[in-house]
Predict the 3D structure of the following.
Amino acid sequence: MNAAMVGAPDARDFLGIEALLGEEERMIRGVVRDWVRGRVLPEIAQWFERGILPRELAAEIGGLGLFGMHLHGYGCAGTSATAYGVACMELEAGDAGIRSLVSVQGSLAMYAIYRWGSEEQKQAWLPAMARGEAIGCFGLTEPDFGSNPAGMRTTARRVGSDWAIDGTKMWITNGSIAAIAVVWAQTDAGIRGFLVPTTTKGFRAHDIERKLSLRASVTSELILDDCRVPADAVLPEARGLGGPLACLNEARFGIVWGAMGSARSCYETALEYATTRVQFDRPIAGFQLTQEKLVNMLLELNKGTLLAWHLGRMKDAGKLHGAHVSFGKLNNVRAALAIAREARTILGANGVTLEYPVIRHANNLESVLTYEGTSEMHTLILGKAITGLDAFG
Amino acid sequence: MKIVVTVKLVPDPNAEKKIDPTTKRLVRAGVETVLNPYDEYALEAALQLKERVGGDSTVTVFTMGPEALKETLRKALAMGADAAVMLSDAALEGSDVWATAHAMAAGLKKVGFDLLLVGGLTDDGSTGVVPGALAEHLGLALVTNARKIEVGSGSLAIERETDTGYQQVNVGLPAVLTTALTFGEPRYASLKGIMGAKKKPIEVLALADLGLGEAAGGAGSKTELLSFAPPPARGKGQVVEAADGASGAHAIFEFLRAKKLV
């Protein structure tokens, strides 16, 4: 190939990653991107500022078919995992709060039922959840047990043929808007999962206020006080911590992509700003210090996006290990946060206002850094994977 | 009811457009191809009609264009159209309005329909003449700018938008309609629709399938593009400096009065 025939790289797709998209993935990306552009971007700053997530979004997202999109049957679209990743990237280019709504619904709540539920449970919940008519939440984390869920204090004990669940779950996305809660609890036979309709007596959820991150996302505390559910509320196929961890790996996979959506939005905003903002009689993009920042962002954005693609293809080929997902989450969230902070400096004072998306992404990423496994835990997972030595606890 | 919607595959309206000075045609390389936005409204109207009429109603999209753009046609299938027909032939390149309508009408006759919905305008050529030319070639009545369509038995009651209000028009089927943008926002393709679109048929027709006698494409065209030029750059706007709101408002009022706009 004659080098002269190769066109100059596109600043917005420097490595030509676009060409990796298959037809289906391109169409799905187009739909999600259009929806985010038309529905989310015009209002997200206001939602973030007011700390709200409009309820009607769930039905709209369900109408598009994004909830549980990579699950098969039960009213789900049945796309590839890569297409799900592409959708997460576009959603988070809007806001990580919107992506979290979709992640928790599809990868935590629906996936738990899909993977570990009985046929009756799947029929009862998945179609309504796919349509966005029933929202789900996922109760694993507790006030005193975050990185160490094995120590959870929530218990489920047999009362006749029923189960009585007692305990508190914390930092639960979608908690107060959920119709169904997937609750993990200690039993005589180890950790089990339960489907708890949120109308059940003894179940309460209230929102955690005063967050400065993921403000366009509902975060709640769940209180289960002698909450009685029937025998068939237990997820029959899940035993032990492997049950919830399998779900978390699904959600983390979406974050690997989503983080690059936030990062892309920050990079593109900073690039546009730097080329139009004039100081000392020229665009600040013409200064070496600014160029270094932009190029650092370019490198990490493109490397992280390629990594997401690679993990997506591995997942579709059935070759993705949990440690691979940890690799992706650790790298891409860390990179995205660095990109957001660097972008903030390019925008100067404008970088701290909601007129631009950068500070919103930066603040959101502070949550993304620690939820679904902190960066420290993912570091230890990778450390164990390469040394064979367990450094937890 | 068999509804056919004509769609055109056009360069992304938001992309900067260039014209090749040699061929005098739009440069498509490097520009994403999309469904002509006006046609998406026509498709939305067709899908709504299908949902209302029910039964064995179908929506087929029909396009004329290079086969390489087939992927874009899948979006129409993903939005809910049942089938697609593509008239694609190298000999059609360079068709003007007459040649386009002539070839499309032959294709549409072969496909057959009760109702033909056409977008009012294309984003690239923007002649707005093809709907009328199609109706003429097909020998059918044309109702333009439909904003509301009620289905009767063998006929349609249509509200057509005008500059001052709307007209009520009845038309017997088969007929040709163009839709107004007030008909309703085109729906998003759902993910299930996208996944299902892969299984829907796209039939490709060549000129030989239509038995058209006359020359097609540039050779069959009755007009010739002599030259083209980009629109002139807009002059600088007039900036009104005002000490306060009241004097600013007065200056704007004087400006409008001088132009006899108030």
The mean pLDDT of chain A is 96. The interface with chain B takes residues 7, 23-24, 26-28, 30-31, 34-35, 63-66, 69, 77-79 of chain A (CB under 8 Å). Chain A has eleven helices and eleven strands.
